[in-house]
Amino acid sequence: MIPTLCIFFHSMDTVSLQTALSFAATGGVPPEVMALDGKRLCGSRSDEHPNGTHMLSCFADALKAVVGQMPQPEGGNEITAALALLRSLELQDAVITGDLMFTNRSLCDTIAGKGGGFVFTVKDNQPTLKSRIESATAAAEASLSPSRVPDRKRREPA
96 pairs with which residues across the strands? Predict the structure, then answer.
């Protein structure tokens, strides 16, 4: 029985299964917020795969479910896997969150192009981007500050 299950699972179309499970979890409607993150599967290292299997997942906290996941291709990185994963998901009006790894122009363009938004962490290892964000934030805050108007004394009618 075990060899039969092994053969069955190895021959399974995992992309189609993932698509069907994602649709079942969401009802075809994207969750409002989804977190993008990658993890190496525990126990996945072998002689054939010395680095193990690295999966990129999109998790919807409101559903308490993974709504999409994709293995990182050999020789690829999390960005390439994230692009493929996000292209396969409905993102209209959804917000994607993630860590510093996902602060990437092509990834952000993909999300925005599908009608979604994003919130990613920016730290000191991206000094140019961080500086631009700080400048834009300071300019926005300055434009919201009340302007200094000279004191005008109220005159009472005589």
Answer: 34, 118
pLDDT band at residue 93 using 50, 70 and 90 as cut-offs? very high
Give me the DSSP letters along 12-58. S-HHHHHHHHHHHHHTTS--SEEEEEEEEPTT---SS-TT--EEEEE
The pTM of this model reads 0.69
Contact 101, 94 (CB under 8 A): no
Q: Measured at the alpha carbon of residue 16, what is the angle toward residues 97 and 30, in degrees to the nearest 5?
A: 35
Query: Which residue from 56, 61, 6 is spatially nearest to 32, judged by alpha carbons?
Result: 61
CA distance 7 to 60: 31
Give 38-48 pLDDT, tens digit per residue: 888 787 777 77
User: H or E segment at 119?
Assistant: strand 117-120
Structure confidence at residue 157 (pLDDT): 61
CA separation for the pair 104, 112 (Å, rounded): 12
